[in-house]
Design brief:
8-stranded parallel β-barrel; alpha/beta; about 260 residues; binds 2-phosphoglycolic acid
């Protein structure tokens, strides 16, 4: 078991700060406010993904179980001459329990499905929960986007033993919704969550499909979070912009707590 929460009830709220806030002092302020809200949460796994350079400082001062930490990216190799990179072991040693892998903003810089696959295995080997991001770049009327997402899942998770799927989170994030004003409608999110679970079942079996956690990400805000958290089979959300506003974070945690009951 990699994590401390009760999977059956828990809703996930992954807060991807990306390259924010501008200073460590700013990150500490945002973290303290996020922590206060997380302490009041019920059955919500709040995971903060700060800038890598801020992670160790925030994690080393933190005591408690109200939240946990993720790295926003990691390298597949355990050590070596990889300027600017962070290994899974370094991430774990700095206090991370989760690793966001294959985020659209990394894929846009050239990260391939093969690299995502290697990172997933490296994370699992170092007791990090991989948060594997998948999602189509655009929707087309022929349905090629469905194949794009299924292919991302099949290749990212290839060779993962069935018993490890309980340690994996898939975040479905349509690229066109990330940073956009509007998320897809809840019924569209639902269709894609069903598709993600079917893709896992087809490639890795029913047990893997029911064990894996599936999140949605892309333009989640206070106004649409209630409806998105209510999507059947959805285990939570991954949030970018809204994670930088402590008032919105507090609202999202309250909504997640209600959804977890
Ligand atoms: P957003 O980002 O919430 O700002 O759309 C989501 C993401 O990048 O995962």
């Amino acid at each position: 078991m990699l994590t401390w929460y009760n999977f059956a009830m828990t809703k996930f709220l992954i807060l991807n700060w990306k390259m924010n806030p501008e200073t460590l002092a700013g990150a500490r302020v945002l973290f303290e406010k996020t922590k206060k809200s997380a302490q009041r949460a019920r059955s919500v796994a709040v995971v903060v993904a700060p800038a890598q350079v801020h992670l160790a400082s925030l994690a080393s001062r933190f005591r408690g179980k109200s939240l946990s930490f993720a790295v926003q990216n990691m390298h597949a190799q355990p050590s070596g001459s990889y300027t600017g990179a962070t290994s899974a072991l370094q991430a774990h040693d700095a206090g991370a329990t989760h690793a966001i892998i294959g985020h659209a903003e990394r894929r846009a810089l050239g990260e391939t499905n093969e690299e995502v696959h290697d990172k997933v295995h490296a994370a699992l080997d170092e007791r990090l929960t991989p948060v594997v991001c998948v999602g189509e770049r655009e929707r087309d009327s022929e349905g090629a986007y469905v194949h794009e997402v299924c292919e991302q899942i099949a290749s990212a998770l290839a060779d993962v033993p069935e018993k490890r799927f309980k340690d994996i989170i898939i975040a479905y994030e349509p690229v066109w919704a990330i940073g956009a004003p509007k998320a897809p409608a809840p019924n569209e999110v639902h269709q894609m969550i069903v598709l993600v679970r079917k893709a896992v079942a087809d490639a890795f079996g029913i047990a893997a499909s029911s064990a894996v956690r599936v999140l949605y990400g892309g333009a989640v805000h206070a106004e649409n979070a209630e409806a998105i958290f209510a999507v059947p089979g959805l285990d939570g959300v991954l949030v970018g912009r809204a994670s930088l506003d402590p008032i919105l974070v507090d609202t999202l945690i309250k909504i997640a707590s209600r959804a977890a009951k």
